[in-house]
């Protein structure tokens, strides 16, 4: 009986420690592309844009990050099958909101100053730097 209780206690301890460690990883959620923000976020995913679209937005919600975290947004255009960097945007959640928070809304954009966008394939890489780095890639076309 004592062996069973000890085994049950060890299993509960393992489950608790695994759960708390898993929930400590940073998260990037609701990553969406759009041409218009509503309530500070892209509400609907837009995979195809018009060449006359003035601004592309990408929004996401960042949770459980360290104070030193950075999120980089790399905007690319595929020109003759070669990936060409158009713009890089780096956001630091702590600079956007001086209060410590468990959740940050991040928005990056890409603007076209003159003429229509070239037709073809585009891509945005959202890169979380820090202790647990990872990348989310969103593709779209014009």
Description:
The chain is elongated, with a radius of gyration of 20 Å. A hairpin with a 2-residue loop joins strand 3 and strand 4 (82-91). The strands form two sheets. The protein has a four-stranded antiparallel β-sheet with strand order 4-3-6-7. The chain has two helices and seven strands, in the order H-E-E-E-E-H-E-E-E. The chain has a single domain, classed as Immunoglobulin-like, CATH 2.60.40. By secondary structure, it is α+β, with helices and mostly antiparallel strands. It has helices at residues 2-22, 93-96, and strands spanning 27-34, 55-63, 70-79, 82-91, 103-111, 121-129, 134-141.
Topology:
Blueprint (H helix, E strand, L loop, with lengths): L1 H21 L4 E8 L20 E9 L6 E10 L2 E10 L1 H4 L6 E9 L9 E9 L4 E8 L1
Antiparallel strand pairs: 1-2, 2-5, 3-4, 3-6, 6-7
